[in-house]
Design a protein that fits this description.
Length: 331
């Protein structure tokens, strides 16, 4: 069936300016790390993407190694883009990344110009795109000079293969250096993509302040702790969950579902109920409550999770009592 996007899609979402840039992102973005690979159901992936866009999610986040196997999430996206989203290209922010191991040998990993240039060309081919909206360096490389990596991001923008650039998982000191180099090159860093959730709060120790001061956007990932910060593991590990699926490529497994975590999740779940939210909604709301956070990237395995999670935008205000209660619950 020919896809036609919901006419009221922009009334359903809120958009925040990304740092000091001219670009706005939806408060909730969709990530394709898992559930869009060759091993996954194509029609499910297609239904998720259509529903997300119908709900005003204009930003889809990818990387060269998403799948599994690596590369296959970009292929799935490219195929669905061609069928459903081509007429909407100018309404979409599509990102990809390179930085983790992608192909054998010394040129398929980390942060050299050799790797990044080849990887973006491959990503564009897999997705059938002329350019991506955001290209990220996916993780810091301790050996390649930052000037080389950042210079390559600048080159991609000069070549028109990326409109904006970002970095992911850089600590504050190295992020500050990267921002300075990019600024000097005339390609300011648009955005930083860190892991951030109620369970992982390292960005509160300096990174958020740096991003706020530098006017760089922030787009956290794994804010549901891969599903732990939802109600799905309260009564054991469901067969169809990420923890049970052994997908590899960084996906959580059963070991992550500890009694200690579940005790905390139970308390958080009770508070979410009091607030009239699902725990997933409250966990995401807790992340977007900070105005320096531009958008939160959600992962989903089924369309219903888009519908549920996206409702976090209806209530992301927390009283100081609620915030200290949450801190106590997290211990
Ligand atoms: N830059 C980086 O290094 C990096 C690293 C990781 C991720 N990311 C990006 O961030 C995105 C999100 O990461 P993530 O998948 O780890 O995110 P997440 O949002 O923490 O976890 C997603 C998982 O949570 C469960 N879930 C989602 N909504 C739910 C709901 N409403 N109720 C119950 N369960 C729900 C689903 O698990 P089930 O599958 O069990 O149903 C889903 O697959 C990725 O796709 C990627 O774009 C970036």
């Amino acid at each position: 069936m020919v896809y036609s996007a919901a006419e009221d899609r922009y009334q359903q979402m809120q958009y925040r300016r990304c740092g000091n840039s001219g670009l706005k992102l939806p408060l909730v973005s969709l990530g394709l790390w898992h559930n869009f690979g060759q091993i996954d159901k194509y029609e499910n992936a297609r239904n998720i993407l259509r529903l997300a866009f119908d709900k005003g999610i204009t930003h889809f986040d990818l990387a060269n190694n998403y799948g599994p196997p690596s590369g296959s999430a970009e292929e799935t996206f490219g195929s669905i883009f061609k069928k459903d989203f081509k007429p909407y290209r100018d309404e979409l922010i599509i990102s990809t990344k390179a930085g983790w191991g992608m192909w054998p040998g010394p040129y398929g990993d980390l942060g050299s110009k050799k790797y990044l240039v080849a990887s973006l060309d491959q990503s564009l081919k897999r997705m059938g795109l002329d350019y991506v909206d955001i290209f990220y360096h996916h993780r810091p490389d301790p050996d390649t000079p930052l000037e080389e990596t950042m210079g390559t991001l600048d080159l991609m923008v000069q070549q028109g293969k990326a409109l904006y650039v970002g970095i992911s998982s850089y600590q504050p000191a190295e992020a500050a250096k990267a921002f300075a180099i990019l600024k000097q090159l005339g390609t300011p860093c648009l955005i930083h993509q860190p892991k951030y959730s109620m369970f992982e709060r390292w960005i509160e120790d300096g990174l958020l302040d740096l991003l706020g001061n530098e006017g760089v956007g922030c787009i956290p990932f794994s804010s549901l702790a891969q599903g732990l910060l939802t109600n799905k593991y309260l009564k054991g590990i469901p067969q169809d969950s990420r923890a049970a699926s052994h997908r590899g490529n960084g996906a959580m497994d059963e070991d992550a579902v500890t009694d200690e975590k579940i005790e905390k999740v139970k308390k958080l779940n009770a508070l979410a109920e009091q607030r009239g939210q699902s725990l997933a909604q409250m966990a995401l709301a807790w992340v977007i409550k900070d105005p320096r956070v531009t958008s939160v990237i959600i992962g989903v395995s089924k369309p219903e999770q888009v519908t549920d999670s996206i409702k976090c935008i209806n209530n992301y205000a927390f009283s100081s009592e609620e915030l200290s209660l949450i801190n106590q619950m997290l211990g």
